[in-house]
Amino acid sequence: MSYKSIIVNLAIDAPPAPIVKLGIELAERFGARLIGLAAADVPPLVATGDGMVYEGEVMQIQHTEIEKRLAELRAEFERLLPASIFSEWGQAVCSPTRFLSISARSADLIVTGSEKGGNVFRAVDVGSLVLGIGRLVLVAASNVEPVMAKTVLVAWKDTREARRAIADALPLLATANEVVIATMDTDRDKSIRDSLADVAVFLEHHGIMAGTELIAGDPDGDRLLTFARSIHADLIVSGAYGHSRLREWAFGGITRSLIEESGINRFMSY
Questions:
Q1: Is residue 55 exposed (0-12), middle (13-18) or buried (19+ Cβ within 10 Å)?
Q2: In degrees, to the nearest 5, what angle opens at C-alpha 97 toward C-alphas 92 and 102?
Q3: CA–CA dist 86, 32 (Å, integer)
Q4: What pLDDT does 246 receive?
Q5: Interval 75-117: pLDDT, tens
Q6: φ, ψ at 218 (rounded to 5°)
């Protein structure tokens, strides 16, 4: 397995170069084509300082401004791209989450930033994306650098989502210098240690040597992130655990912490 088609999502309000360079590094690493995408939408209503709401001309101006910015992002994407990489471009004036979700059917891996601010008209909703896209999602750290996956932390839980995430991440794990599989040890159950050992053997069969670690205490996202920083992990591989499609109640604590984290690259599968 490898990633042969990679989408890199460019946020309309973020500088494009860091995320494009990450996409280029991954495309070169895996011999993949690189698809650049960008989208933003016009809010259906626009409130003025006088409290009035207008449509029509104001919305058309915003539409034109978005199209201008999308053209700038395309030009920057094409300028940065080396001739050795086969590429495509897509853009739209619509919901960025919806556009990326639709476009994902043509890709193995989605690379996006974790823009904060909650403006669903101008940035991807990472939570909705991970739960609904049906593809692998790499959420880049805010200080993203081209070289990644030197030390990878696999956040293990004996569930379908975690098993799927590890299988999906095999190409990245195979390029890492160090892989550590860690799980929360809530009750010192021997089966937890056995499951860690089984995952390590599974990875070994794929030529990946991995260490294992039990993190004491109840499942907690902050504890997992603290451990990730202690081993200088630059990528966390995790299943995403969704309980509801309503955003406020969508995630368990660890998944929510990983989505909100911005200092480490996160590879999430659902």
A1: exposed
A2: 70
A3: 8
A4: 38
A5: 999 999 999 999 999 999 999 999 999 999 999 999 998 766 5
A6: -70, 155
Q: Which burial class, exposed, middle or buried, applies to 5 when counting CB atoms under 10 A from its CB (0-12, 13-18, 19+)?
A: middle
| Amino acid at the residue 46 | V
Dihedrals phi, psi of 41, to nearest 5 degrees: -130, 160
Return the structure tokens found at 57.
């001309």
pTM of the prediction? 0.87
Q: Do 152 and 172 contact (CB within 8 A), yes or no?
A: yes
Residue type, 212: T
Tokens of 153: 């932390």
Residue 138, H or E segment: strand 136-139
pLDDT at 85: 97
* Torsion sign across C-alpha atoms 11, 265, 110, 8: positive
Report yes or no: 197 and 181 within 8 Å, Cβ to Cβ. no
Give CA–CA dist 21/81, Å, rounded: 8
Two structure tokens written together for 225: 């992130």
109, amino acid identity: L
DSSP, res 226: H
Give the C-alpha separation, 6 to 103, whole Å. 11
| Bridge partner residues of 88 (DSSP) | 35
3-state helix, strand, coil in the chain (%, to 5): 40, 25, 35
User: Distances in Å between the alpha carbon of 104 and those of 2, 20, 69, 265, 266?
Assistant: 16, 17, 22, 20, 18
- Main-chain phi, psi angles of 61, to 5 degrees: -65, -45
Nearest CA-CA partner of 155 in 249, 244, 104, 231: 231
